[in-house]
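Listing S7. Sequence submitted for prediction.
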Amino acid sequence: MLLTLLLAQALAPAEQACLAQARRDPARAEQVARNAIGGSARMRQCLGLALVGQDRFADAAAAFAEAARAAELAKDEAAADYWAQSGNAWLAAGEAAKARTALDAALAAGTLTDLQRGEAYLDRARALVATGDVKAARTDLDQALMNAADDPLAWLLSATLARRGGDLTRARADIAQALRRSPDDASVQLEAGNTPRSRATRTRPRRRGARRYGGHPTRPPGVPPPTRSSNSRPRRLRSEISAHHDPRHRSRRDDRLLRTAGAEGGAADGE
């Protein structure tokens, strides 16, 4: 027993060094983690993070799953977080069904709290949409908004799901929340452009303009309408443009990384 404790204490600095190196030099961190792969769950997590840093998301998901199983054997409550990381990495790899399985395990453990719990629900909602279970995704998104209300992605995905389901009142309310939290995010702005405004909001500026210019809402009297050259083309509607996200653009605290909007785009659109 004493020998086990001493070995665990001796390994802790190596684990911390590996985790730090995964940020700076993921390829080197991978070598370090593989050399010690018979060790702790935390070292397996380091391997997963090192693989994420090299965009090897499927391999990373498998490494996080190994970390979770090792933690479960050790009765370590961190197992749930490793399962959540595995699910997140599976989403980055485009494997929604595998992501759902990992996230089911993360949430079933019952040890995730607050923001971690909310983001696990958010990731599972994305996986559910990608696998066609929109009703269950709505339930998970509502749970995510209770625990991760400061995350603009939760509001963005909720707005998109509401819009596609025809609930425009909720879509407008939720995208307003996303804009409040992340006004410069291109994905949030895109969804705001895709969400129809209420009739009163659409008509109010036109009426003001009509009174100001005596009948035309945007052009004063005497100003001719603009002409379009024969080779010009109308701009494409924003709704025709599909959002593309960088899978690495959202990193998480404690190296949770990957909120994968490549999967976000698919999950949000359900396509």
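Caption to Listing S7: primary sequence and predicted structure tokens for the chain studied. Residues 33 and 47 are 5 Å apart (CA to CA). Confidence is low (pLDDT under 50) at residues 1-11, 200-220, 226-271.
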